[in-house]
Design a protein that fits this description.
Length: 468
């Protein structure tokens, strides 16, 4: 349990050391903040509970949406902050925080460019498809196209910059003076020993509460029994601390789900399969929703099907596309993909009714031919071929989108809109830009919040330091 210990008077027991910026959490948010703070000459220490920093960032695909970047320009993609803001806002149905959305959209391009040019982290633009809701090609990834590689590259950059990352340092207690100024953070080591580190500013970069099953059941009841695919160490510490300090929270029922989590293999099956013409059928062989809507809300659709599962069905052309994704290749190696020369044989192999599957696929082929929308409102640009493949999937919770209320400088706010004296939050620890509904998540909102938020938080701390 993460707690706050209130100090009597402004000065508490002297910590071993005091740093200008103390960061809890060594995921994308914490590491980007530390790197950018170093650029401004601000010393920081990052506290990480794990022995090897991983977080949800390493579990992710590592795709970062960014606009007006050098990489986009080189690829001839015209994009702008305004266009990106419009896309995020449209997906969230206007339920997203407008100021934070603009701040993140404005920061992410310079952040990605700077990580490339100054921190030696090369980014490429994903091509071949766009994610639902993105009007431009703006998904950036490191060449390996995995979250683990993104983390390894960030960790290397942090090490080269001489930034201290204290691993196996589980922060559990904030020491705060009256007025909610945090003076120090106490950490627990695996051997039970404790250390206290003083801080001038504290950045909570310890993500959301997906790892806290009780809180998930309370705030997101429809995901109570869903697989949590994120980092289980993200147990809502930032919410516990923030609430104890008197901070406001927002969008707590918002989250990123995913309707394409290989079952039982536990691997992400790219949604590009759906956007490029694949479909989902349930265990009876029936289609049940418009797959072009987005993978987050698809999680709820899949979980409401018999057995809480669906089959992703696709053809040879889409198989080739899927194989460009490392997670898919891993799933294929693990035996997740079933192939068949036609729908009848596929149905037999999946144990479903052949007539129903043939009818479902026949309907999508007919709609692809006549260009009319199907019963779910989906339009098909292309038709599935004769040879088919399928992967059994379920709906999973990827990460929570609600969190501490922050302003556009990532300062944590009280319910009356005033800032806490020296506490910032970003990434999954703060509210996101998806609003409070599962369908509000535009792909990439997670790493957008983490990378842009970390970048902004460092700038805020630097600005505060320069005015002292
Ligand atoms: C399978 C999957 C795929 C995804 N793919 C994408 C994608 O392609 N694009 C995208 O934008 N988003 C994606 N996401 C979401 C994305 O991973 C997260 O939004 C993002 O990584 C959050 O970064 P963060 O730095 O806020 O948190 P994290 O990366 O989770 O880092 C938080 C760190 O804080 C540490 N920590 C927590 N509590 C404490 C404590 N008390 N003391 C010390 N340390 C603590 C944790 O151990 C962790 O290392 C995906 C998520 C999943 C699960």
């Amino acid at each position: 349990m993460a707690v706050v210990r209130w100090l009597d008077g402004a000065v508490g027991p002297a910590p071993a050391a005091t740093v200008p910026l103390l960061i809890v959490g060594a995921g994308a948010c914490g590491l980007v903040a530390a790197l950018r703070a170093r650029f401004f000459g601000i010393e920081s220490v990052v506290l990480e509970r794990d022995a090897l920093p991983s977080g949800s960032t390493a579990l992710s695909s590592g795709f970062i949406p960014a606009c007006a970047t050098a990489v986009q320009t080189a690829a001839g993609v015209e994009d702008s902050v305004g266009t990106f803001v419009a896309d995020i806002t449209a997906k969230a149905g206007g339920r997203n925080d407008a100021r934070l959305t603009r701040a993140y959209a404005r920061a992410i391009g310079p952040a990605v460019d700077w990580l490339g040019s100054a921190a030696g982290i090369p980014f490429e633009l994903l091509d071949g498809f766009t994610y639902p809701g993105h009007s431009r090609r703006r998904m950036h990834a490191v060449p390996e196209r995995t979250g683990r590689a993104l983390m390894d590259r960030l960790l290397r950059a942090v090490e080269e910059a001489g930034i201290t990352v204290l691993t196996e340092a589980h922060a559990d207690t904030l020491l705060a003076a009256p007025g909610a100024r945090v003076q120090a953070v106490a950490v627990r080591r695996p051997d039970g020993s404790r250390e206290t580190i003083g801080c001038e500013h504290l950045l909570l970069a310890c993500n959301g509460y997906g790892g806290d099953r009780e809180r998930v059941a309370r705030l997101i009841p429809e995901m109570r029994d869903a697989v949590f695919a994120g980092h289980t160490g993200n147990d809502g510490s930032a919410l516990d601390w923030g609430e104890a300090l008197g901070a406001a929270t927002a969008d707590l029922s918002g989250y990123q789900g995913h309707g394409s989590w290989a079952d039982p293999h536990g691997t992400l099956i790219t949604w590009a399969l759906m956007t490029e013409g694949g479909v989902q059928v349930n265990a009876r062989g029936e289609r049940f929703h418009d797959e072009s809507g987005g993978y987050s809300e698809a999680a709820v659709e899949v979980l409401s099907q018999p057995g809480g599962i669906a089959w992703n069905v696709f053809d040879e052309r889409l198989l080739a596309l899927a194989r460009t994704f490392p997670d898919f290749r891993e799933a294929e190696r693990a035996g997740a993909v079933t192939g068949a020369p036609d729908a009848e044989t596929l149905a037999q192999r999946l144990g479903m009714d052949g007539t129903t599957l043939r009818a479902s696929l026949g309907e999508t082929r007919a709609r692809a031919a006549d260009g009319e929308p199907d019963a779910f409102g989906r339009r098909f640009a292309s038709s599935l071929g004769e040879s088919l493949y399928a992967v059994r999937v379920t709906g999973a919770l990827f990460h929570t989108q609600g969190g501490l209320t922050v302003d556009e400088a990532c300062r944590v706010l009280r319910p009356d809109g005033a800032c806490l004296p020296n506490v910032l939050a970003a990434g999954g620890a703060a509210r996101g830009v998806s609003g409070d509904r599962v369908w509000g998540y535009l792909s990439g909102n997670g790493l957008l919040s983490a990378v842009a938020g970390g970048w902004i938080a460092a700038t805020t701390v630097a600005a505060a330091a320069s005015t002292r």
